[in-house]
Amino acid sequence: MMNLFTKAFRRYLLGRVFRFQFTASEDPGISLERLNASGIEALHIYVHIPFCKHTCPYCPYNKVPWDAELAGQYFPALKAEIITYADVIGRFQVPSIYFGGGSPAISPLDLVDGLTLLREVFLITGDVCLEINPAECSKETLRVLKDAGVSVISVGIQSFKNELLNLIGRSYDGVTALKALKNTVELFENVNVDLMFALPHQTLKELESDLKTAIDNGATQITVYPLFTFPYSTIGRYKRLKRVKMPNFMVRRRQYYFVYDYLVSEGYEPVSVWSFMKKASNSKSVKYSSVTREYYLGFGAGAGSYFPWGFYLNTFPVQAYIERLSMGKLPTSLEFAFNKRMDDLFWLYWRFYDTVILKQEFEKRFGKDPKVKRIVEFFRKVGFLTDEGGYFRLTKRGAFWIHLAQNYFALNYVNTIWSRALIEPFPELIEF
């Protein structure tokens, strides 16, 4: 059903013959002049640290087991990439920095070293966000991160239940997960907790218990997402072998609606289709999000960069990334070039994900585009959207369907790109 739904909208908006094409690229073509000409006054930054002490079977992201020798080559290469771009665009304004992985805090001093460099070469004006594995949430590590200026932190707990943690291959238990959350809340005002729903055999009672534990222990934001069974991931292979039986559509919807209603009743409000933030009691509450920043520059193996003229990916294999920079070259591998309309549609996709679309910006981008306006009107009529004056807001029903579309997008489109990029350092063409 989602396949037909997605194909229909793709054909309606982009035409019957449109193909997504990621082509080989060695340089994203960034320059200060080009940014200024595009009206870009600031760029967010993403930094990818691919190392993990324990790789999780469900995780689809670019990751490698911890290797001190390899890390000793990777972090200098990462700094070289940062300096290369800083030499081109100067002390450009950066509203936020996000460290992802892998396990970004696996080597805290190297992370702090990289953050110090970013502050030296760019004008950092906003928050520094970091995701962290519960097994790494010692008070000592958290204090190092806090002192370095990390202000928003996301603890990848997934569940407090030992049975579910074992199912998804996590290396810690529920006691460790709870201690990690308590340690983090002691030091940080803005703490997101990642949890999972629609896991095989997971019950509503278990889901409620996980949500309640996160709330009772101070999570200011809770992100609850489904298990992504990417075909190239270990758990994806298990699914093909019938060792993992995923919940059906009805169970998934029931659990999603339960999460939505429960968190809203506890004083949290939707800030994306998967994330709920505690209603601000002070002006310091900050939304944690890794994917909805408007334009950003990515550093590290497999990192993406998004500009008005295109989306770019660095090479995924860590050794290829290191070698490229040792040769004095950028590690760029793939380019998805697009025009103004594609940029606008990309913006709309992520505003649906955010659950809120500001009318003023929508009119600026699509005021003369009847196709897009008809889609928004259709969503309103079927109960996916409500008109709330200055903005449109996704309803619970709409958020669920956008969540399904996001899941489909990841398992079909993202999987097509990443499964090739993980094994081919520099593909010539990826098309779908």
Automatic annotation (TrEMBL):
SMART domains: Elp3
Keyword Zinc-finger included in the entry's annotation: no
Xref: InterPro entries: Aldolase_TIM (IPR013785), Coproporphyrinogen-III_oxidase (IPR034505), Elp3/MiaA/NifB-like_rSAM (IPR006638), rSAM (IPR007197), rSAM_sf (IPR058240)
Transmembrane segments: none
Keywords, ordered alphabetically: Iron, Iron-sulfur, Metal-binding, S-adenosyl-L-methionine
Radical SAM core domain residues: 37-269
Protein name: Coproporphyrinogen III oxidase family protein
Lineage: Bacteria, Thermotogati, Thermotogota, Thermotogae, Thermotogales
